[in-house]
Amino acid sequence: MIGKLVNFFGDEKYRRMRWRLLLAVLAAVVLADFLVTRQHVEHFWDAIPGWGAVFGFVSCVAIIFISKFIGHNGGIMKDEDYYD
User: Fold this and answer.
1) Does residue 63 belong to any structural domain of this protein?
2) Do the beta carbons of residue 49 and residue 33 sit within 8 Å?
3) What are the angstrom distances between the C-alpha of 64 and each of 7, 76, 77, 80?
C-alpha cells in the first residue's frame, strides 16, 4: 500500500493524474464553499464564495516562491559541497 502511494507521488508517469487530482480537490473545496451560509460576515470579501480556498492557495504559492527567492538570492542556501 505504501509503495503504491510513494510511486504515485514520485513517479513521472502519474504527473498528469496528480494535476487532475489537485484541480479536482480545489474545485470541490470551492464548490463546497457555495453551500455555506454567510449571514454575519465581518468583511465584504468574507461573503465571496470560494474566497478562502483561493486566498489560501495563492498564499501558499506566494510563501513557496518568496522562500525560494530568499534562499537562492539572500545567501541562505549553500551549494552541496559547501563544507568540503
Assistant:
1) yes
2) yes
3) 24, 15, 14, 21
Is the sign of the CA dihedral 29, 31, 32, 38 positive or negative? positive
The reply to whether 82 falls in a domain is no
pLDDT score at 67: 92
28 with 50: CB under 8 angstroms? no
Q: Distance between CA 31 and CA 24 in Å, rounded?
A: 10
- Total count of domains within the chain: 1
Task: Quote the domain boundaries for residue 50.
Answer: 2-73
Tens-place pLDDT, residues 47-61: 888 888 789 889 999
- Number of Cβ within 10 Å of residue 24's Cβ equals 10
Query: Is residue 84 domain-resident?
Result: no
User: Would you say residue 66 lies in a domain?
Assistant: yes
